[in-house]
Amino acid sequence: MLSASDAGRIGRLVLPKKCAETYFPPISSPEGLPLKVQDSKGKEWIFQFRFWPNNNSRMYVLEGVTPCIQSMQLQAGDIVTFSRIDPEGKLVMGFRKASTAPTSDQGNEAVNARSGDASAKKTKAGEVFSSPHLLKGRLVSPGISQINQANSADQTSPWPKDDISRCLTKEVVGAKRKNSNLGSKSKRPRVETEELIELKLTWELAQGLFRPPPNNVSSVVVIEGFEFEEYEDAPIIGRPTIFATDNSGEKIQWAQCESCFKWRKLPADAFLPSRWTCSDNSWDPERSPCSAAQELTAEELVCLLPTITQPPSKKIKAAKRDPDSDEALQALDALANLAIQEEGENLPESSQATTTKHPRHRPGCTCIVCIQPPSGKGPKHEQTCTCNICSMVKRRFQTLMSRREKKQSEKEAEKTALQYLEQNPEFPLMFPDDEEFQLCTVSPIEKTVNLASPLKGNIIDLNIQPERDDEVSSGSDSGGMMRLVQDATERYLRQQRLSSSRNGNLGSKQTLLSGVFPLGTNASASSSVTESCKSVHKEEDR
DNA sequence: AGCCATGCACCG
DNA sequence: CGGTGCATGGCT
C-alpha cells in the first residue's frame, strides 16, 4: 500500500524489506538493477530496484516510479502489486484503488499475496482472487506457485534458481503482518498446514479447479503468447471433474462422489461444489444414492484418467533406447510408487492412506495399484508397453528427465559465461556489445559478479573466486577485487575513447556507462568508477 | 531489535 | 532548488 512518500513527488517507492529480498532479484550493490514491468494497460516501465544502507541493514526502493504512479492516478492508500509470469519471468504490475471501491480492482494480478501482505488479511477467502481473474495461461503468484517451482525453473530468469514465483504488495503504516510467511527469518517461506494442502495442487490442477464466475462473460487476452481468460468477478473453485464425450458425441463430465468414490456422469455445464456426493446428483436421480452402480468400468476410467493427470497438449514420448534407458527402467518403479502416492494425495481426505505407502483401496479407487491386474496375472508391462499405466509412468519419467536436463543446461550456461570472462581478460566486467549482458555489479563481500541485461532481464551470478583471499578488498582502495573492477573499467574506457575517436560514436557508449555506474555522470567516467568503488566499500565497512 | 516513513543535509 | 542518499525516530 502506497504511503504518502511513495505516492509523492520524490518518485521513490519504499519496498518492504522482506518482500524485496524474497520476491525481487538479489542485488549486491546499492545501485541495484533496472526492472522492466508491464502495467495493466500493457505499458512498460523500467524501475531501478536498489537499496540504501540503513542501520546496518538495507532499505529497498524502486526509483523512477513517478510517471507510472501518475499514469495510474495512484495516491497514498492505493495498493500496488507486482507479479511474475513464468516461465519467462515477465514482471507485471497491477493496482487497486483505496478501499472505497474494493471490487473495482485493476491490473494484471490474479492472486493477492495471500500470506505475504496486508491486503490478504483484509481479504475474505472469496476475494483472494482479485479481478480481472485469469483462468488460463500461467500466471502465478505465491501460494499456488510454490508448488510449481520445479516446472518454472528457468536459467534465463533474473530470479534465483531455487526461487519461487513471486508477488509483492506494498503495505502501509499500521498494516498488520501476522502469520506472514515473509516475517520468517528464513527466506524460504514457511509452509503452514493449511497451505500444505494447497501446495499439493499443481498449477495445471489448480486451473482445472477454477470455474468461471456465474453470469459472466470472459474476455480473452493474449500476453506474450499466453492466452488468458479474464473475468470481472472471482472464479469459483469447484470440484475437479473429467470432461469427456459420451457415445452419442454429447459433451459430458464425470465427477467422483466424495463419499463412495463412484464416478457419475453429469452434463458438461454442471458446476459442482468442492464437496460433492451422489446425493447431490440431481441430474440422474437413479444414481443419486451411493448404492447405485457405477456406469463406468475400471477400464473406461483408466482411459479417462490421463486427461486429468497430464495437460492434453503434451505429446507422449516413448522411452528411448540409450544409456539412460536402464536408468529409465529403474526409475519407472520409483515413479510408479510416486504415482501411487500422488493418486492417494489427490483423493479426498477421508480416503487417505492409513499406511504410509498406499491409500486404502475402496470400490472405484482409480489408483495405479487398483487398476493393475493382480501380480502374475494379465499382460506384463514391457518397456514398449503403451498401456495407460505405462504411459502415465513414462510421462512422469519424462518430466523428471526434462527437469534434470534443464538443471544441466543451467550449469552449462554458467560455465560458458565463466569461460567468456576468462577469454576476455581485458574487459572481464563489461559486455556492452553483447545482447545478453550489459550491466554488471560487483560484490567484493560476496565475491560475486552479477551480469545483467535490462533488455532481457537476465542475471547470472558467476561466483568469481579470486585466486587469493587477500585479492578481495578489505576496505582499502588498493583492495584486489575493486582494483580489478577499476582497472578493467579504465581499460574499457581507454578502448572506447580510442574506438569512438575513430568512428565518432561516443554518446551511446557513455550512456551505457552511466547505467553501469549510476552514481557518476557521463562527464567523468573515471570518477564514476571511484564513486562506485567508494559506495561498495562503504557498505563493506559497515 | 529491526523495519520503514519521512526528515534533512549535501551536492551539483 | 531539486535530486539523492543517509539518519532519525515512531512503531511493531
Detail the poorly predicted runs. Answer: 101-157, 160-208, 306-382, 424-482, 503-542
User: What is the 3D form?
Assistant: elongated
The overall pLDDT average reads: 54
Enumerate how many helices there are, as a single number.
Answer: 14
Q: Report the end-to-end length measured between terminal Cα atoms.
A: 31 Å
| Strand portion | 15-25%
The major sheet is characterized as: 9 strands, mixed
Class of secondary structure makeup? alpha+beta
| Count of extended strands | 20
> In which range does the helix fraction lie?
25-40%
CA radius of gyration is 28 Å
In words, what does this structure look like?
With 542 residues, the protein is α+β, with helices and mostly antiparallel strands. Helices cover 30% and strands 18% of the residues. It is built from 14 helices and 20 strands. The chain has helices at residues 4-7, 17-23, 66-71, 118-122, 149-152, 193-199, 203-209, 298-304, 306-309, 323-346, 388-423, 480-503, 507-516, 525-541, and strands at 12-15, 33-38, 44-54, 57-63, 79-85, 90-96, 106-107, 133-134, 139-140, 167-169, 210-211, 219-223, 226-231, 236-237, 242-245, 251-256, 263-267, 439-443, 448-453, 458-461. Strands 1, 2, 3, 4, 5, 6, 7, 9 and 10 form a nine-stranded mixed β-sheet that branches. Helix 10 (323-346) packs across helix 11 (388-423) and helix 12 (480-503) runs antiparallel to helix 14. It binds a DNA duplex (12 and 12 nucleotides) through residues 3-6, 8, 10-12, 14, 16-18, 30, 52-57, 59, 63, 172-174, 176-177, 521.
